[in-house]
Amino acid sequence: MNIKLLPREKVFRDPVHNYIHVQHQVILDLINTPEFQRLRRIKQLGVADYVFQGAEHTRFTHSLGVYEITRQICDNFAVNYPTQTPGDGLWDDNERLVALCAALLHDIGHGPYSHTFEHIFDTDHEAITRRILTDPSTKVNAVLREVAPDFPEKVASVIAHTYPNPQVVQMISSQIDADRMDYLLRDAYFTGTKYGEFDLTRILRVMRPYRGGIGFDANGMHAVEDYIVGRFQMYQQVYFHPVSRSMEMILTHLLERAKTLYEAGKFDTRFNPRLLIPFFEHQFNLQDYLRLDDGVLNTYFTYWLDYPDLVLQDLASRFLSRRPLKSVAFTTQTARLLPQLKALVAEAGFDPAYYTAENDSFDLPYDQYDPSVADPKTQIEIIQRDGTLEELSTLSPLVAAISGKAIGDKRFYFPKVMLSKKADDLFAGTYARFQTYILNDSLIDPR
């Protein structure tokens, strides 16, 4: 492999890690590719800045952070756990460059407003990431090929979890990896919350390689517990915030309305979203995808403020001007009442297809390994003094209490006006009947 070091280490200032250190020419070259620079124009948390106004950080800054944590892991392993003989389960520093490149590029395939866009247009950011790495038309691929002809495929295989060294894969993707550790700390910092904070320095210090992957010294277990609890709190308080989910629902319906109008041949050509048409027609290529970012979508939404279709116009206005839908929690038992609520929303003059939504958000804070499930998770192993491995939740009552339990809720979204108390409103009676179904933020049967 052609491994070229910079004549002098380059550093990037970072609010989370202070400095991000770059020693390899290939890392600097990858950062300077147009595909990677595009990540500056895609927000890490999508629409969360409608709730936490500081959450304007990007996939670019997060990707650099994941690289930096991975670099620190490699440094720790190289100093404290260097391989002595092949197959001894210790760290082979020849794996450093593939780990660093995979860390840096792990999110390069994200689209605008990432997960909402994926849902509407049936894209897969991980598959697109692997394609960006391996497609000869990209600058990223050209840079990776300068290391070795097969290097792009090696890096892509880390993203695909098929790379033969499990230590490298688990650095980037496991229940406690560089990706999760950076986004928890970074999202906590930019949202102004404290839930996601944990002792990164201690966790990196107690992290150790072994033949099956990466484990943690027993004396560092409490730092790992703190990370698990922090992740749990961030999902409940930030990632699953009802207003963020509301804005996602508006964005989803806005794109769905535009797609429906286009597919019906009714889209006003004066407002054609030229860069979205390949996605409306399900015939997009990699270059079509790479032209999109958050700003492109926002520009089209601004045009649509004057669009003749009142639904599209109103949804664009609601999204750009932050007018979220309201919501109420429901359960499996009360879900049977949703058709009645949708009927009342329609009675008030709103199309339920675009002005109501059902959203469920659930997360597994921690899960033990189960090879029988479709997507088995890599469990967290605590390394005892004698070298034996113990799974985290068998040692920690705190982690055991939330292990394997999906945490979250189901919510029904509807226009805010349905909660109006104005007696002189034309639809006052409709609103009053609607409100009889709600008590303490929960859906109830009023009978």
UniProtKB/TrEMBL annotation:
CDD domains: HDc. It holds the Pfam family HD_assoc_2. Residues 59-184 form the HD domain. This is HD domain-containing protein. It comes from Lacticaseibacillus hegangensis. SUPFAM superfamilies: HD-domain/PDEase-like (SSF109604). It comes from the Bacteria.
